[in-house]
Amino acid sequence: MPDSVGEGLQDVSAQVLAARTGREGVAKPRNLVTAISEVQQYYVMEDGGEGLPADFLTMEQRLALFEVGFRSGFVEGLLVLVLPLLEFYLFERAMESTDWSVRIFFWSAPYLSVLVNTGICSYLSRFLIGNMTRRAITALLTGRTLALVVKSGLIYFCYLLLDRLVVPHRVWGLVRHFGSFAGPAYYRIMQVKPYLVPTATNSASILLAGAVLPFLVVFLRDGWRRYRTAANERLISGD
Fold first, then answer.
1. What's this model's pTM, rounded to 2 decimal places?
2. Pairing of strands 25-26, 21-22
C-alpha cells in the first residue's frame, strides 16, 4: 500500500512537471501570480509526503523566479517617482476635502501596487513546507527585495540631488525665458522644494518596508511552524 501511494505521488509530480515543460524546456513564470502558482505546485508535492531533494528545483528555475521577483519589485510603485509633485499640486486640493475616503485614497494611491504585492508575497508563508518551496520562495522574494532596495536608493538619491540643484539663481535662470509665466513658474518650483527630501524619505522608507515585510512574515511563520512541530513531537514522546 505505501508503495502504491508513493508511486501515485510520483505520477502526480510527473504530470505537474510535464505540464510545466514543453519542447523548449522548463516553462518560465511570466509574472508574480504565475510564480506563486508554481510555488503552490511544489507545495502540493511536498505536502503530499513526497521526499523531494533540494536540487529538484534547478538553477534555471530559481533564476526565473528571481527574475520575476526583481521585475515585479522594480515596476511596483512607479508613481512614487513623481510623488512630491502629486503631493503638492494634487494632494493639496484633495486634502481640503472633508471626505476621509477621498483623503485616504489620494494618500495611498502611489503606494497601492507596493502594498498589494507585499500582501501577495506575504501570502507565500503558508506554502513554506520543505526544501523545494523554501528555495523557490527565497529566490522570488530575494529578487523583489533587491529591486525595491535599489529603487528606494535611486529615488532618495535623485530627489536629494534635485533638492541641491533647486536654488533660486538656477531656477530663475531656467524659467526666465518663459515670458509672462516666468514669475508663477519660479514661485511654484520653489514651493515644491521643501517637499522633496521629506517625501523622498517617506517613499524610500515605505519601499524598504515593502521589501522586508514579506521576508519577515514568511520566515517568522516558518519558525513558528517548526516550533509547534517540535513541541508536538516532545509531547508525543513524553519528553
1. 0.74
2. antiparallel
Strand partners, 25: 22
User: Which pLDDT value is given to residue 67?
Assistant: 92
Contact 141, 72 (CB under 8 A): no
| Of residues 134 and 20, more confidently modeled | 134
In sequence order, what DSSP letters do the residues of 66-113 get, joined into one string? HHHHHHHHHHTTGGGGGHHHIIIIIHHHHTT-S-HHHHHHHHHGGGHH
pLDDT of 22: 44
Q: Are 210 and 114 in contact (CB under 8 A)?
A: yes
What's the angle, vertex CA 162, arms to CA 158 and CA 167, rounded to 5? 170
pLDDT tens sequence across 177-219: 888 888 888 888 888 788 788 878 888 888 888 888 888 888 8
- In sequence order, the 6+-apart residues with CB closer than 8 A to the CB of 211 are 73, 144, 145, 148, 149, 152
Crossing angle between the packed helical segments 131-165 and 112-122, to the nearest 10 degrees: 160
The three-class DSSP label of residue 98 is coil
pLDDT of amino acid 231: 83
Taking 3-state DSSP, the helix, strand and coil percentages for the chain, each rounded to the nearest 5, stand at: 85, 0, 15
**DSSP three-state, residue 167:** coil
> What is the rounded CA–CA span in Å between residue 185 and residue 211?
37
Enter the C-alpha cell of residue 181.
509665466
Burial (CB count <10 Å: 0-12, 13-18, 19+), residue 127: buried
Hey, what's the cell of 25? 524546456
